[in-house]
Amino acid sequence: MTGLKKYYAPLIVGLAAGVLGIVPLVKVLSCCLIVPLASFFSLLLDEKANGITGKTEISKGVIFGLLTGLTAAFFTYSLDLLITFIVKSNDLVAAMATLPEMLENYPVDQAQKQEIMRLFEGISTDISENGFSVFYAVVYFVYYFLLYPMLGMVGGIISTLVRNSGKKNMGNT
Q1: What is the pLDDT of residues 62-119, one digit of tens each?
Q2: Cβ distance 127 to 82 under 8 Å?
Q3: C-beta separation of 65 from 154 below 8 A
Q4: For residues 48 and 159, what is the distance between their CA atoms, to the nearest angstrom?
Q5: How many whole angstroms separate alpha carbon 78 and alpha carbon 81?
Q6: Residue 160 to residue 25: CA distance in whole angstroms
Q7: Whole-angstrom Cα distance, residue 154 to residue 79?
Q8: Contact 73, 20 (CB under 8 A)
Q9: How far apart are CA 21 and CA 81, in angstroms?
C-alpha cells in the first residue's frame, strides 16, 4: 500500500473521535478514553482492510496513534470553535456563575483570585459578545494539539502490544 491510502484508517477514526469530542457528556471521556480507543480502532480497521494477520510493529502503532490524535484534535478544536462562534456560548461561559465559589477552595491569595476572575470574565465576555476569544482559542489549541496526539500514541502503543500478544509472527505487517 502506498501514498496516503495507508493512512485512511487513522484519518477516518480520528474524524469520528473528533466529532465525539464535542458531544456534551461524551466529551468528558475524550481525553482519557476516546482518543486511545480511536487509536486501537484505527489499527484494527487497517488490519481488517488490508488483510494483515501478522504482528504489527510498535512504530506503526505510534504513527497511527499520532495521526489519529492529530486528526481528532483538529476536528474537535475546529468544531468547538465553530459551535462557540455560532451560539456565542460554551462550557466556560456556562461555568462562570460557579467560578467564584470554586476559587474559594483554591490555596491562592485574594489578589491572584481576582486576577483569575478578571481573566475568565474577559474570556467569557469576548465569547458572549463576539463568539470568539483569542486567549481561549490559543489555550485550547495547545491543549488539543498536545494532549490528543500524546494519548493517541499511548493508545497506539498499548493497542499494538495487546493485539500482538495474541498473534503469531507471520511477517505480514
Answers
A1: 999 999 999 999 999 999 999 999 999 999 899 998 988 888 888 888 999 899 999 9
A2: no
A3: yes
A4: 15
A5: 5
A6: 29
A7: 24
A8: no
A9: 12
